[in-house]
Specification:
The chain has nine helices and 15 strands. The strands form three sheets. Strands 11-10-9-12-13-14-15 form a seven-stranded mixed beta sheet. The protein has a six-stranded parallel beta sheet with strand order 2-1-5-6-7-8, with helices on both faces. The protein is of the alpha/beta class. The two termini are 32 Å apart. Helix content is 31%, strand content 27%. The protein has helices spanning 3-14, 27-37, 77-93, 122-133, 162-169, 187-197, 239-250, 269-274, 305-317, and strands at 18-22, 41-42, 44-48, 54-58, 66-70, 98-103, 137-141, 156-159, 177-181, 200-210, 213-220, 227-235, 255-263, 279-285, 299-302.
Length: 328
């Protein structure tokens, strides 16, 4: 047996006890992850009773297996959340050895602090619900803020997509480039991304008044005459990006590209950003599905399936996941 064949045989043997299931939120990503893992994606049957309640059945043996449930929390978030909790309960009831939630996007991560009287902290509550339902471990991608990691009482492997984004932008001449964070809260991630590319970093001073109303009063950093990459963790309505673009234009950059991990693009945000003539490109990953009919010629979607698959393999084998963060 050749060395490659031995490695493949060893890898196949190590993965034989994995059972991967996908909820309804993003089956295309789940299928791609399983292709990279070299394991089947097992079916899930979801039924709805006459009283509108859901019932979930995992249609493969889970007994003493390492079960992975892939489900980003995307629209409709509440439906997908309940479906995930029912999948967790089903896996626990089927005597799974361990159940890992693979959650490329955690929508409730934005509810991470008490910034108004009598307001709920949904990020913590939903984390508790998932653990109560049977989650033994969580694999997440680019949580909205660092403290969300601590909301879970089970181990969390927190990946980011900066390496995937960096590979894409290295095709361009970066000698005159600045990475721009829309606010100081995202500045650390933007600085990390700038280091990967070997470029400068800048940040906006943002104040949010409502979910769809923000104000950026100034931008700290070198902008004039430079090629800009606006980087955010997610783009929902796009109000922050559009506000930032107005401030950047006042400083006369040479070119502008927009990048994010989670391209939610609610309320036609993709159209609004894409219609800006000075925006050359919009780059996101496939942590959430972007409907084909909503895509524009400026949109580039990068796959995080290889990184998620490798993380799942390492979790199953008890190997280090942190090395996936190393610069490439």
């Amino acid at each position: 047996m050749t060395s490659a064949s031995a490695d493949n045989a060893k890898r196949g043997k190590s993965l034989r006890d994995i059972a991967v299931f996908s909820g309804s939120a993003h089956p295309e990503l789940a299928a791609e992850i399983c292709t990279h893992l070299g394991v089947p994606l097992y079916p899930v049957q979801v039924d709805r009773f006459a009283n509108d309640c859901l019932q979930v059945q995992l249609q493969a043996n889970c007994r003493e297996r390492d079960v992975f449930l892939i489900q980003p929390l995307v629209t409709p978030v509440q439906e997908n959340l309940v479906e995930l909790m029912l999948m967790l309960d089903a896996a626990r009831g089927a005597s799974a050895a361990r159940t890992t939630v693979v959650m490329p996007h955690y929508a409730y991560a934005r509810s991470d602090k008490k910034d108004a009287p009598r307001i709920s902290i949904g990020g913590r509550l939903v984390a508790d619900l998932m653990v109560t339902a049977g989650a033994n471990r969580v694999l997440a991608m680019t949580l909205h803020s660092p403290q969300v990691h601590g909301f879970f009482s089970v181990p969390v492997d927190h990946l980011h997509a900066l390496n995937e984004l960096a590979r894409h932008f290295r095709q361009y001449d970066l000698s005159n480039t600045t990475v721009v964070s829309p606010d100081l809260g995202n500045a650390k991630e933007a600085a990390h991304f700038a280091r990967l590319l070997g470029v400068q970093v800048a940040a906006g001073a943002k104040q949010r008044y409502a979910d769809d109303r923000v104000q950026i009063t100034s931008v700290i950093g070198e902008i004039t005459g430079r090629d800009l990459i606006v980087l955010d963790d997610e783009i929902a309505r796009g109000s922050t990006v559009l506000e930032l673009l107005d401030r950047l234009r006042e400083l006369k950059p040479r070119s502008i590209r927009v990048a994010c991990t989670h391209g939610l693009f609610a309320d036609k945000a993709l159209d609004r950003i894409g219609s800006q003539e000075d925006v050359l490109e919009i780059v996101c990953t496939n942590t959430v599905p972007v409907p084909v009919e909503e895509r524009t010629d400026k949109l580039r979607i990068l796959s995080i399936a290889p990184a998620m698959a490798e993380a799942m393999r390492r979790i199953h084998n008890g190997e280090s996941v942190s090395s996936l963060f190393e610069p490439v």
